[in-house]
Amino acid sequence: MKLPQPDKTISPAVSIGIIVSLVWVVLVFLYFAFSGQRLSLAFDTSILGLLTLVSVILPLVLVWTVALTAGTAIKLKSEAKALRKEMSLVAKDLRESTARLPREQSGIIEQLKLIADMTMQNDKRLKEIANNGVPNAPQIDVVDLNRTVFGDFQSPGQETQITLPLAGATQAPLSPMSVADFLSALNFPDDAKDKDGFRALRRAMEERKLQNLLESSQTVMSLLTEDGIFMDDLNPDRRVSGAWRKFAGGTRGADVASVGGVLDKAVLGIARARMKSDPAFREQVLQFLQRFDQVLVEYEPRLQNHEITDLANTRTARCFMVMARVSGAFN
Q: Which residue from 1, 20, 228, 285 lies 20 to 30 Å from 36 (Cα-Cα)?
């Protein structure tokens, strides 16, 4: 905020004080000039001389006391008015920035809803297959995506299971997921037009470990948005491929502290406070960290150094950086 600059001009009160003082001095000299009384005798050391001196000087003192007091009051009033104007401008800017925030967040919330809709449709298709399949076929456990993306999370022993009969006794193995699709899935689609992002996400959902990780990541990021923490706002240090490999190899503590590249004190403070005050959130975070570690161990050998840098730039990895640091993984 720009503070008011001091006013170096002469205030009206001081100008009036100067005029009144000059008039008073002129009147005093005119009095002595026409009264016939000598100035030397009027201002001698006698009691009468002292009283005369006081009667001449005292009005000047009173005039300047009033003038300076009035000038100070006028100056303070002007500065207060300028300060109120500056405060009103600050308040206006704050209201405008607050009004823009929901619009900026709406894009991310829309992405979360699109991902939720996609997983719900996936679960619906799986149930249709289950209802129309052949009886007495092998059973495969499938997580209920409706409950895990935005609903209450269930521990691994309590996951909803459905019987998924298949037409044959065997199923063709999935082809290995490409590194590009793996990184794209961890980053989630950018918007509704990101066809490649949704394709990679659908492919990742076909692998159990990645499906579990993405569901946990989605849940934790959705909860963090309630506290105003958005992954796109973070700017982590991503030039630490060696530390990521050590972390995937089981190293913990200060040696791999650079993996937690998000050092924003405000973000870490909010996340740490949520961890301490919300047991359900803490359980979600711990499960997310465990699943991220499992996937990292599996995929790290396939990643080149520049691909590890790309991994660290994904939204899921940013979420991991924040929550791993506040959970004490690097202490």
A: 20
